[in-house]
Write a structure and sequence with these properties.
Blueprint (H helix, E strand, L loop, with lengths): L42 E5 L2 E5 L10 H19 L4 H13 L3 E8 L2 E7 L7 E5 L10 E5 L11 E8 L5 E8 L6 E6 L5 E6 L5 E5 L5 E6 L17 E6 L8 E5 L2 H5 L10 E7 L5 E8 L5 E7 L11 E4 L5 E7 L2 E6 L7 E6 L9 E4 L5 E8 L2 E8 L2 E7 L5 E4 L6 E6 L7 E6 L6 E6 L4 E4 L13 E9 L5 E9 L10 E5 L16 H4 L4 E5 L9 H5 L7 H16 L8 E6 L2 H11 L6 E5 L18 H4 L5 H10 L13 E7 L8 H13 L6 E6 L10 H18 L8
Parallel strand pairs: 33-34, 33-35, 35-36, 36-37, 37-38
Antiparallel strand pairs: 1-2, 3-4, 4-5, 5-6, 7-8, 8-9, 9-10, 11-12, 12-13, 13-14, 15-16, 16-17, 17-18, 19-20, 20-21, 21-22, 23-24, 24-25, 25-26, 27-28, 28-29, 29-30, 31-32, 32-34
């Protein structure tokens, strides 16, 4: 859950544990012609009458010396193999030239009339925190650097800013910082006017969710429990709590105000908060209430409690329930006594309702933005009204709802998609992030009086000519006849001869959509005549709640079928051939690509499984596995086992099958996908494939899930991946 208001109830894929000292075990680079051998140690179990064999269970203990050495040897072999691809260095140089010439901006927000944002300038290796003291000034207004995490690099381990939250008047900024891409954030505070660091430091704040209170002297935040010897790895993200921190106070003495165990310890009315729930408190200066939020693992629907703000001064807070998961609320925001709810109850495309917090009645709330063909994705309160972001056939649109009930469309610009809206309840208008598949994004400041947006200038234009490329929107027919949207990025004059190196990407989980975006490094692939395509498979949120649930647990096969159908479309329509087509899935997308290559290995020349979930049956035994039971199921019940087994690519690898060339990646500090998942999949594929094509495991020892990685890390990984794909696709310049 993002730490900023308006209250955003999005969830993201979660697995992994931090770097342990045993992983420091090293082995020398070698020039062997095959991957390191892997012992097979079968573990056989029976679930509901079905026998399952796990030959590489021992690799789950990757922090132990033997496994750590095996992983290091695998990575050494991979690095040597990739370095021998002839075109790789030239490709990497091109990627660096494209990327280092561009700036990247994230998380823009306005507080106290100041504009805050994270930016990696052209040439910079990591995102830095900036402020512009006058948010309404022209694009030429001067920015100031507040924090450069590159200066915190120690012992070759880099630091990154995970999140930040300005105080209500913008005078202070709380931010989370972690090392090595681990996302194990420590909260720090700085003064906006001087950049001076305050002495406060609070660890175990991966989720943080800082909520400043009036007066700049205190804030609320989420903190994970302290792990002690003997606790299971799966306890890492369990039983989190919300605390009140007063500046200058020892955080070990911060007051417990909400979360796991509150009602038992404080003898209050019952709060339904389970081990795997995450607890947060949100506050908006537009309303005199506090909101206690309970996220049930990775479910999008939350439970909410509320109390008047002055209750925080009481020794015991009597939280009152506002709504539970049956209300199907996934986001909300507030204005005075009114609360605006984004809900899919009986409305799979969502609607926005309103009820009064003086006498809340969520079940009979007034509909203020009716459901329609578009999918409502957010409703965020500003001083002048509520800004609505819709998804319309894959394109982000925006509307404005005035407090008196009028709805009006807000244009984003020709060919542009609204990727995000940032509002502040004490500021008029909105910051609007607009993007496309073939051009650099920009941040616009929308003025409701002028009914137009002006470029803030915080995102410099790309110094790259992309006019030769276009995006086309097509649809592929899946196995059950469902039409699957397919976004294809290609050269305008592309010859459809079935011979283009084509890379197909998919995800399909948590109701997350693959919205339009552009990465300048794509040009290195496109200018070689390559094609990039995104399959908008079921399990995502492109068409609302029904689309999401159609690729969920026991219906997960639809996600894989949709990806396979998209691959077949690209072949049938002469973009490419199986000899030149590659596929990719990242994180939960490991289920998608793993299923595709085990069910239809003949469709692909190569595949990327990037920090991917490959062994679904073992997910709940990883540190952040328990929260994901809500998304994937548990082996503790028959239907849960059935769904997990069906989506477990590792369990469907068959000996003697001609698999495509496969590159798997892992981050040793990954808090979302445990490194054992790609490790076990690599071992089983290496032992099983009959194609003589490479199966490589690339491990980054200064990275996690990709969040917090530096520009240099991203560029090197992209060059390694694309060079591998071009090698497997038969490109003459990339043949060792």
């Amino acid at each position: 859950m993002p730490p900023s208001l308006p209250i955003q109830l999005k969830t993201r894929f979660c697995f992994g544990i931090a770097l342990l000292s045993a992983i420091a075990a090293t082995s020398p680079l070698n020039a062997q012609s095959a991957p390191p051998p892997t012992d097979r140690q079968d573990v056989t179990e029976t679930f509901y009458g079905q026998t399952v064999t796990d030959p590489y269970r021992w690799l789950e203990n990757w922090h132990e010396p033997k496994v750590a050495q095996w992983m290091k040897a695998q990575d050494d072999y991979t690095r040597v193999t990739l370095s021998r691809i002839p075109g790789r260095e030239k490709f990497l140089a091109r990627v660096k030239a494209l990327d280092l010439s561009s700036s990247r901006v994230r998380g823009a927000q306005v507080w106290g009339g100041k504009l805050f944002y994270l930016k990696a300038d052209a040439g910079a290796d990591n995102l830095k925190l900036y402020v512009r003291d006058n948010a309404t000034a022209s694009a030429s207004s001067k920015e100031r650097l507040l924090l450069d995490p590159e200066l915190l690099t120690k012992d070759d381990v880099h630091s990154s800013i995970d999140y930040f939250q300005p105080s209500l008047d913008g005078a202070l900024v709380a931010y989370g910082i972690s090392t090595g891409g681990s996302e194990e954030s420590v909260i720090h505070i700085l003064e906006t006017s001087t950049g001076k660091q305050l002495p406060d430091a609070i660890d175990r704040c991966r989720f943080g969710a800082v909520a400043w209170l009036p007066g700049n002297q205190s804030f609320l935040y989420n903190r994970l429990q302290k792990m002690t010897p003997g606790m299971p790895r799966t306890a890492f993200e369990q039983r989190s709590r919300v605390y009140l921190h007063e500046l200058g106070r020892d955080p070990e003495h911060d007051r417990f105000v909400f979360g796991y165990g509150y009602s038992e310890e404080m003898k209050t009315g019952p709060l339904k908060i389970e081990d795997n729930d995450l607890s947060f408190i949100a506050y908006s200066p537009a309303s005199p209430y506090l909101f206690g939020l309970v996220a049930h693992g990775t479910e999008n629907e939350v439970t909410a409690y509320y109390v008047p703000l002055d209750q925080l001064q009481s020794s015991t807070i009597q939280w009152k329930k506002l709504f539970d998961v049956d209300a199907a609320v996934v986001r909300f925001d507030v204005n005075q006594d009114d609360i605006y709810l984004v809900t899919h109850k009986n409305k799979p495309h969502y609607e926005v309702t309103r009820t009064s917090l003086k006498h809340p009645d969520v079940e009979h709330a007034t509909v203020v933005v009716p459901a329609s063909e578009v999918v409502i994705q957010e409703a965020d309160v500003a001083k002048d009204g509520i800004y609505i972001r819709d998804l319309d056939g894959g394109i982000g649109r925006m509307r404005r709802l005035s407090f008196d009930g009028r709805i009006e469309a807000v244009p984003a610009g020709q060919g542009l998609s609204v990727a995000a809206i940032s509002t502040t309840p004490t500021e008029t208008g909105a910051l609007v992030h607009v993007v496309s598949w073939t051009s650099a994004p920009s941040w616009l400041a929308y003025d409701p009086q002028r009914t137009s947006g002006t470029d803030t200038g915080i995102q410099p234009p790309l110094p790259i000519d992309t006019s030769a490329y276009e995006a086309v929107e097509m649809k592929a027919k899946s196995a059950d006849g469902t039409m699957i949207p397919l976004s294809i990025i290609r050269a305008k004059n592309l010859k459809l001869d079935g011979n283009r190196p084509t890379h197909l990407i998919g995800y399909g989980a948590y109701g997350i959509s693959y919205d339009a975006f552009f990465d300048p490094v794509w040009v290195a692939w496109l200018e070689r005549g390559g094609v990039i395509a995104f399959a908008h498979v079921r399990g995502g949120g492109e068409y609302g709640e029904e689309w999401y649930r159609a690729g969920y647990k026991l219906t997960k096969q639809h996600t894989i079928d949709d990806f396979i159908a998209s691959a077949q479309y690209l072949i049938d329509n002469k973009y490419t051939s199986p000899q030149r087509l590659s596929g990719e899935g990242t994180s939960a997308g490991g289920i998608l690509i793993g299923g595709a290559i085990t069910q239809r290995p003949d469709l692909f020349s190569a595949a990327l499984i990037r920090v991917g979930c490959s062994n679904a049956l073992r997910m709940e035994f990883t540190p952040n596995g328990p929260p994901n039971i809500a998304e994937f199921g548990s082996i503790t019940d028959p239907d849960g086992f059935k769904g997990l087994y069906a989506m477990d690519a590792y369990q469907h690898v068959k000996h003697g099958t001609a698999y495509p060339g496969i590159l798997l990646t892992a981050g040793i500090n990954d808090p979302r996908v445990d490194p054992s998942q790609p490790a076990k999949m690599a071992a089983r594929l290496q032992a099983s494939t009959s194609s003589r094509k490479p199966v490589l495991l690339r491990v980054d020892y200064d990275a996690g899930h990709g969040m917090g990685s530096t520009r240099a890390q991203h560029d090197l990984e992209f060059a390694d991946e694309m060079s591998f794909l071009l090698w497997q696709a038969g490109d003459a310049e990339f043949q060792p």
